[in-house]
Amino acid sequence: MKLSLIVPCYNEENNVRPFFDACKAAFSGKIDSFEAIFVNDGSKDCTGVRLSELFSVEENVSVIGFSRNFGKEAAMLAGLEKAAGDYITIIDADLQQSPETVLKMVEILDTKPEYQCVAAYQEKRREGFFKTVCKGMFYKIINKMSDIELHPAASDFRTVRRCVADAVLSLGEYHRFSKGIFSWVGFETYYIPYVASERNSGKSSWSFRKLLGYSVDGITNYSVLPLRLPLYFGVLSIIGSIIGLLVKLFSGTLTSLTPGVLLLVILLLWGVSCIFTGVMGLYLSKDYTENKHRPKYIIKEYLPHDDEK
Ligand code: UDP
Ligand code: MG
């Protein structure tokens, strides 16, 4: 069995070597063969130099260097495209996620053929209260609004079989949200808890603004509800305004254009315009989904009848 590690790196000059050494030590005698694919995502420090040094002395290291910072999602995709292993692990370069957990993931895939993916979730998050609450809210919202199901403490740290990596690569969308993609392609996922260690060196590159943009990408990639919302608002406001007008009519107060009546008429007209916007949203949402050119289904196994073999 060959294991491919995909390691996105952004300003990790002091981490890439310790990370690789830790993997080598942990995997020695336990994994037949492994390769580490480092993706230098336009780092501004000496990560590129450190990776070239590593490449020149280690035979199982590959390095992909981006022309600029394209983000972790792009780095994971580039790594997946080059990975040749039977099992593929996505892991951070900062040693917050340990190679020992990778061994656990590999063991699960080895012993449980019914699972195609092992995903790690953080049992206790180390982030501050505010970030934890925001992340919790994000997972609640996306699980309610979309047809995918995300683990509330999901991370990108996971090991998958080749078939899952191929399925993920068959989704060619530009705005990628891997947690959603892994959920969308299906397959059986085994969840294991892990405790993130302190960063070996450097600091997290995820600012609150970056996380917010990432969350918006996540929601809009997997839910067309925002495009349909005007339709629901329109229906509600039309019903509400008609009821209001009828009440006024039957109580005999619909005699002149009082401010109350005017408000109900405005609500009615606003509702009509919302409906038109919502109908446009309906068409747009269909076009949006079509434009992603996602596969219509993903086959996990095929047992053909003799004639078809
Ligand atoms: N990373 C990347 N591109 C970016 C930001 C981060 O490749 O634009 C990498 C980073 O080097 C690390 C992983 O993604 O290996 C996770 O990033 P980080 O440790 O900053 O995130 P956190 O652990 O705080 O969620
Ligand atoms: Mg980190």
Describe this structure in words.
Helices cover 50% and strands 15% of the residues. The protein has 309 residues and is α/β, with parallel strands linked by helices. Helix 2 (47-57) links the parallel strand 2 (33-40) and strand 3 (61-65). It is elongated. 29% of the residues are buried. Magnesium ion (MG) binds at residues 92, 94, 96, 199, 204.
Any idea what the shape is? elongated
- Ligands (ions, cofactors included): uridine-5'-diphosphate, magnesium ion
What percentage of residues falls in helices of 4 or more residues? Answer: 40-55%
Q: How many H/I helical runs?
A: 10
Chain-averaged pLDDT: 91
Largest sheet: 7 strands, mixed
Q: Provide the β-strand percentage band.
A: 5-15%
Secondary structure category: alpha/beta
**Sequence of secondary-structure elements:** EHEHEHEHEHEHHEHHH
Q: How is this structure best summarized?
A:
The protein is of the alpha/beta class and 309 residues long. The chain is built from ten helices and seven strands. The model has no long low-confidence stretch (mean pLDDT 91).
Features:
7 strands; binds uridine-5'-diphosphate; binds magnesium ion; elongated; alpha/beta; 309 residues; seven-stranded mixed sheet
SSE layout:
Blueprint: E1 2-9, H1 16-27, E2 33-40, H2 47-57, E3 61-65, H3 72-82, E4 87-90, H4 99-111, E5 117-122, H5 129-145, E6 154-161, H6 162-169, H7 178-185, E7 189-194, H8 208-222, H9 225-250, H10 259-291
Parallel strand pairs: 1-2, 1-4, 2-3, 5-7
Antiparallel strand pairs: 4-6, 5-6
Helix pairs in contact: 5-8, 9-10
